[in-house]
Design brief:
Blueprint: E1 5-11, H1 13-31, E2 36-37, H2 43-46, H3 51-60, E3 63-70, H4 80-95, E4 100-104, H5 108-114, H6 131-156, H7 164-191, E5 198-202, E6 205-209, H8 221-234, E7 249-256, H9 268-275, E8 296-301, H10 307-311, H11 317-323, E9 327-333, H12 335-343, E10 361-363, E11 371-376, E12 383-386, H13 393-397, H14 401-408, H15 411-415, E13 422-430, E14 435-442, H16 443-447, E15 458-459, E16 462-463, E17 469-470, E18 473-474, E19 487-493, E20 498-504, E21 515-516, E22 519-522, H17 535-550, E23 560-568, E24 574-582, H18 588-598, E25 603-610, H19 611-617, E26 620-623, E27 626-627, H20 630-645
Length: 658
């Protein structure tokens, strides 16, 4: 069975009762009330016949980490409970030594009785200054175990191994890369000063640093290895080889220019000084980098005598020689060209501030008809309990289900999905304890079950929608066979009191072409076990990452606020988390610039509305020719309610970007 408890504590009651109670209390503060097995916390669990059988199962399979508080009398004849628990813990030790912690002390006689050798370390209680110190050590070991288990799940999901000859070729290529990577990394750090200039005037933006974070794009070893593996899978007949390390393009320099050549930030003279007299000739630069002119790109070597060369620690001749022939990619482009080339954004970055008027909106239904709230910001905090058991929809819906439904979906829908990574599925919602039991699942499992194109597909004589229950009385999550991965969505409210709305592109799988939330996505499983037991960190980290991808900037953690957890009726009871991002010092204009230059292509345009106009949108079905997504209306309604309840002074607006 999947572990019921994160930590189970075994101890002799007459030896350490008070101390262990304090440790258990601290563990509950770290991990949540229902994650720690301690006899005083769970008397109802022990009130049963054949309790010894229950304890055997609990300490072998029912906990992730077993903690034994050892003493001289632990496990002695006449102390049946610790004897039973110890036999189970020894079995767990054989399977995974890392899943057991031995704390306390035992004399030679006790060690022999317990079957412990000199190599089996019992850490003395005196090594931990306080009960909090010991609890922190237990939590640290638990996190290591959970990360290991999560990595094991991920390994099981990898494609079959590459042929041995290709594996050896990749290993050889990567060895050459690693031998030189420290030189590449140093070069990247030195190149930071050359990355971005200052935009004098373009698209209404004045005297603004284009990119806030000046980081060079030095090749990362893991990305190189993945690229080599991709080549091997695409063409199994050829062994992948790494290009000559000294010929690597190790960094990309992007210089922005204004609309006329006389305002070019990176002039031919400055480029020749930085990269070498032979690298850039005056005729290389196009007469105009604005309008329809093609952006200029050149790959050049680092030459002796240049600014870059002099920066490469000339006192270390070996290092300079290693870097001399490395290549740098230089780009000269306007902001508009950069947005179109890198992000596919062709719309202006800033929309007009025209308010909403009755002729522009069409009334819609109440957003509450589309969602059932499970919890909101006025309720006590929520907790997360990870379940390290991979969900498979073919096990719940029937063998071959995913392939059958996938083949029935419209091609446009399938083409929009480029990943099948691990996401977090809501396995069980414990309303009384306010705990979400989450497990890893495949992204496509919810695409072939919770999304509208799959609802009317018939499998084994039943429509998919018939397997979820009836709206709004959906099956409890523990009984639902559907994917049910947790969605996250947020509304962005800027420092100049504007709401950020997005017009979704035509290619996303969910609600294309509609007016939607500022940012939305799914809760991913990867690295989630480091976030602790409170749900707030899970939602916050995910929406910050989504904002970075979709809008091109990362809000501060303290700017993200939980609004509600709900079930969405349009997606057969799928769980949805609504959030508010309340920016303290970033205006709408700055958000639009971030999106234009750095955001992905999921949105084709950003719109802004004021606080008063936002109320109209909560019940509008259309606005300015766009259908209004129910997700937007619900998120906006919750955000307005939150702000009315939590009004506070706002920070002054800071001009510019970040």
């Amino acid at each position: 069975m999947s572990p019921k408890y994160a930590v189970a504590i075994s101890y002799r009651t007459s030896d350490h009762r008070d101390y262990v109670t304090r440790v258990a209390d601290r563990l509950r503060e770290h991990l949540g009330d229902e994650t720690v097995f301690y006899d005083l916390f769970c008397p109802e669990e022990l009130a049963r016949l054949n309790c010894d059988n229950y304890l055997v199962e609990l300490f072998t399979e029912g906990c992730t980490l077993a903690v034994a508080i050892i003493s001289d009398n632990y496990g002695r004849h006449g102390h049946e409970w610790t004897g039973t628990e110890w036999r189970s813990i020894k079995e767990k030790l054989k399977r995974d030594p890392n899943a057991v912690m031995l704390i306390g002390s035992a004399d030679l006689k006790a060690r022999r009785r317990l079957g412990l050798t000199d190599c089996d370390v019992i850490v003395p209680l005196t090594s931990f200054h306080t009960s909090e110190h010991l609890a922190a050590g237990i939590v640290s070991r638990l996190r290591d175990l959970q990360r290991h288990s999560s990595a094991a799940i991920a390994r099981e999901l990898q494609p079959p191994s590459l042929p041995e000859v290709q594996t050896e070729a990749i290993a050889s290529a990567m060895s050459a890369f690693h031998d030189n990577h420290r030189h590449l990394a140093r070069l990247g750090r030195l190149l930071c000063r050359y990355l971005v200039g200052l935009v004098e005037r373009h698209l209404g933006i004045s005297a603004t640093h284009v990119l806030d974070h000046r980081t060079s794009e030095v090749l990362v070893a893991e990305l190189v290895k993945k690229d080599l593996e991709r080549q091997a899978w695409e063409d199994p007949t050829n062994s992948p080889t790494l290009w000559k390390v000294k010929g690597l393009v190790v960094a990309r320099l992007v210089f922005f220019c204004a609309e006329h050549l006389d305002k070019v930030i990176a002039s031919p003279a400055s480029l020749r000084g930085a990269l070498g007299a032979d690298s850039v000739a005056p005729t290389d630069i196009p007469p105009s980098a604005s309008g329809d002119a093609s952006p200029w790109t050149r790959s050049v070597n680092i030459c002796r005598g240049t600014e870059l060369y002099r920066d490469l620690a000339p006192d270390d001749q070996a290092r300079v020689d290693a870097l001399e022939d490395l290549r740098v990619e230089v780009h000269l482009r306007t902001l508009r060209q950069h947005a179109e080339l890198c992000r596919g954004h062709q719309a202006p970055p800033i929309s007009s501030r025209a308010g909403l008027h009755p002729p522009q909106t069409e009334p819609g239904d109440d957003p509450n008809t589309h969602y059932s709230l499970l919890a909101d910001f006025e309720s006590p905090p929520l907790y997360i309990k990870p379940i390290l058991q991979l969900f498979s929809i073919d096990e719940t819906m029937g063998s071959g289900y995913r392939a059958h439904v996938w083949s029935s979906l419209p091609s446009r829908f399938k083409e929009s999905l480029t990943t099948n990574g691990l996401v977090a599925r809501l396995q069980h919602w414990d309303a009384a304890k306010r705990t979400l039991h989450l497990q890893p699942a495949r992204y496509k499992d919810q695409m072939v079950s919770n999304h509208a194109p799959a609802h009317d597909v018939i499998f084994q004589g039943r429509r998919v929608r018939e397997c979820a229950g009836t709206s709004p009385d959906w099956l409890p999550f523990e009984d639902s066979p559907l994917g049910n991965n947790v969605g996250v969505a947020a509304m962005v409210f800027t420092s100049d009191k504007r709401w950020v709305l997005s017009v979704r592109a035509s290619h996303p799988a969910y609600e294309p072409n509609k007016l939607g939330c500022s940012v939305s996505g799914g809760l991913e499983w990867c690295d989630s076990l480091d976030r602790g037991p409170t749900a707030e960190a899970w939602w916050r980290d995910r929406i910050i990452s989504e904002s970075s991808e979709e809008l091109g900037f990362r809000p501060r953690p303290e700017e993200v606020h939980f609004l509600a957890l709900a079930r969405e009726h349009q997606r057969l009871g799928k769980p949805q988390v609504f959030l508010l991002i309340e920016l303290r010092d970033i205006s709408f204009e700055a958000v639009a610039r971030f999106w234009y230059l750095n955001g992905d292509g999921e949105h084709v345009h950003l719109l802004e509305v004021g606080e008063l106009d936002a109320h109209h949108l909560t019940t509008a079905s259309r606005y300015n020719g766009h259908d209004v997504a129910a997700e937007l209306r619900m998120n906006l309604r919750l955000a307005l309610h939150y702000m009315n309840r939590n009004r506070r002074p706002r920070a002054p607006i800071r001009s510019g970007v970040g």
